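Let's practice the habit of predicting before peeking. Look at the sequence and jot down your guess about where helices and strands might fall. Then scroll down.
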Amino acid sequence: MLIRKVIQYVLLSFPFLLNAQTYHFANYGVKDGLAQSNVSGIIQDSAGFFWLATDGGVSRFDGKNFINYTTENGLADNNVSAIFLDKNNHIWLGHENGALTKYDGKTFTQIKSRLLPKDKKIYGFFQDNSGSLWISTLSAGAIKIMDPSRDPKKSCTLKFIPEETG
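Done guessing? Here is the structure:
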């Protein structure tokens, strides 16, 4: 009986002898250099930078400092609603007004097409196994970019996939 009580005591006391892991959380905001406090998406590129989509543009974070990019740097609009890193390490930015921007690591390029929804928010991106990039929009269905690796100034084929009704 004594052995049983000792075993119970040891088993019940064991969790108190262990130390749990502690995690450090840091909060960043506009005072720290973030473009705007409403963040709609975050990605990490192949160089290790974090990119944050905000209502005031896109912010690149190196772990210490933020660099902010806006329409002055080539964004189609400052209100970035979605962000995506494709298989070629290009960053795609969808905007609240339906505009689209591609960043190739050097330059921000506005994608212009009559198929892009006017004043319809871009919610997200997906790249399928064939490499095509899918764009989800509000009330405008989906848009498919057949070959997103091509230079958008030369050729960017978009295909509209309408929303089904009924």
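How did you do? Residues 16 and 22 are 15 Å apart (CA to CA).
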